[in-house]
Write a structure and sequence with these properties.
This protein has a single domain, classed as Rossmann fold. It starts with a strand and ends in a 6-residue tail after the last helix. β1, α1 (9-12) and β2 form a beta-alpha-beta unit. The protein has four helices and four strands; from the N terminus they run βαβαβαβα. The chain is of the alpha/beta class and 103 residues long. It is globular and about 35 Å long.
Length: 103
């Protein structure tokens, strides 16, 4: 099983050297295609999505929320402070173990 990252190419391209499949995107349409490819491929266990694409892909992400795999983790953008990704991670952990251990 593999890991994928979806985000702006200039930010995510460094993950390729770590063995992560990189989906560099520049538009909402490219982001939709990448997300669909990752979820339909069935070889990924983890998908990392850059936070700046979360709002753009909100509707598409809802389609896949209840799937156990791949797990979707939102990662913060460079230089962002308290972020949406922290809130999303808190909800994932709370759903998984029944308690929010981050707050």
């Amino acid at each position: 099983m593999k890991i994928a990252i979806i985000g702006n190419l200039d930010i995510v391209k460094g993950f390729k050297s770590l063995g992560v499949d990189v989906f560099g995107i520049n538009s909402k349409e490219e982001a939709k295609r990448a997300l669909l490819e990752v979820y339909s491929n069935k070889i990924y266990t983890l998908v990392l999505l850059m936070e700046n694409w979360l709002i753009e892909l909100k509707d598409e992400i809802k389609q896949f929320e209840q799937m156990s795999l791949p797990a979707l983790i939102i990662i913060p953008n460079i230089g962002s402070e308290k972020s949406i990704s922290e809130e999303v991670l808190s909800r994932i952990i709370e759903r998984a173990i029944g308690s929010n251990i981050l707050s």
